[in-house]
Amino acid sequence: MTTKQRVLVSAMRYEAKGILSVEMVSAQDEDLAQFSAGGHIDVFFRKGLVRQYSLINDPEEKNRYQFAVLLEREGRGGSAFVHKSLRVGDVIEVSQPRNNFKLNDDADSHVFVAGGIGITPFISMAHHCRRHARPMKLYYCARAPETTAFVEQLTEIFGENTEVHYDGGDPSKSIDLTQLVAKEKGSQLYCCGPRGLMDALSDVVYRHGGSLLTEDFNPAGSKTHTENSNDGGFTIELLRSGVSVDVVPGQTIIEALQAANIEVETSCEAGVCGTCVVDYVDGEPIHNDVVLMPDEQEKSVALCVAGCNSKKLVVDL
């Protein structure tokens, strides 16, 4: 299960229209667990409401975490809670930091392509690159100046290697990604933002060559466990309690456990966040997530989308 830290909300402020930043410090007046550039945390707002946010402060800071949230009208509850219910002085819990979007240490230069609130992981990356004198450049795509957060801070960090592109919501005025990829040939590209931007950039890189890393907390379009699961169902066994639960065809592991009144921390339930990742000790899981690296899949599994090729999967719960 996720190791949690109790934190105190110490500051909140609007960074742009609809974008609120949240600063947290330890509720026990201790150092917080260190995070690496591009890392994120799970934030536990209340029972059943867990969300992931990239940390936007300098990774060298041990006394605070900071993240930013866009108010989404069609969101799944996290953004509304932050904007309407969370307050300075509240004590909540967060996970230990994780990182599924690491800097490529072998790259000679780093080029960040952000869309809207997708800017957040690049802020900690920029702090790290500046501290270690690594060449970097930012392309920041947004609708309008009033909805674009952290421009002043980022311009101070990136200097003349900052390009902010406004399209006014008109797709015909979007940034020319083909030109961007050609111009930045040889650099490690990173992208975070709307799925359309990431898919379009991925397509250009695929056609014209280059190296691209992306991060996506959007569950839309992710795989589900039903694509490859054992047609006859399987049993999941909880190692610590010895309890066994049958997972029938068409049912997720999470759904089966919940039906048996067994609580497991979840968030996206689409294999993109890592909240429900646990270790397994026996069985042959089918990994349908986009979180775990191949070596991590040898010992861990994301329960929300996993299937099973064996009749039983034993997990460390």
Can you lay out the helices and strands and say which pair or pack?
Blueprint: E1 4-16, E2 19-26, E3 40-46, E4 49-54, E5 65-70, H1 78-84, E6 91-95, E7 110-115, H2 120-131, E8 136-142, H3 151-158, E9 162-166, H4 177-183, E10 188-192, H5 195-208, E11 211-215, E12 234-238, E13 244-247, H6 253-259, E14 277-282, E15 285-286, E16 300-302, E17 307-308, E18 312-315
Parallel strand pairs: 7-8, 7-10, 8-9, 10-11, 12-18
Antiparallel strand pairs: 1-2, 1-6, 2-5, 3-4, 3-6, 12-13, 14-16, 14-18, 15-17
Helix pairs in contact: 4-5
Describe this structure in words.
This protein is an alpha/beta fold. It folds into three domains: 4-95, Elongation Factor Tu (Ef-tu), domain 3 (Beta Barrel); 110-215, Nucleotide-binding domain of ferredoxin-NADP reductase (FNR) module (Rossmann fold), CATH 3.40.50.80; 225-315, Ubiquitin-like (UB roll) (Roll), CATH 3.10.20. 17% of the residues lie in helices and 31% in strands. It has six helices and 18 strands. It has helices at residues 78-84, 120-131, 151-158, 177-183, 195-208, 253-259; strands at residues 4-16, 19-26, 40-46, 49-54, 65-70, 91-95, 110-115, 136-142, 162-166, 188-192, 211-215, 234-238, 244-247, 277-282, 285-286, 300-302, 307-308, 312-315. The strands form four sheets. The protein has a six-stranded antiparallel β-sheet with strand order 4-3-6-1-2-5, covered by helices on one side. It is globular, with a radius of gyration of 20 Å. The termini are close together. Mean pLDDT is 90; it is low at 220-229.
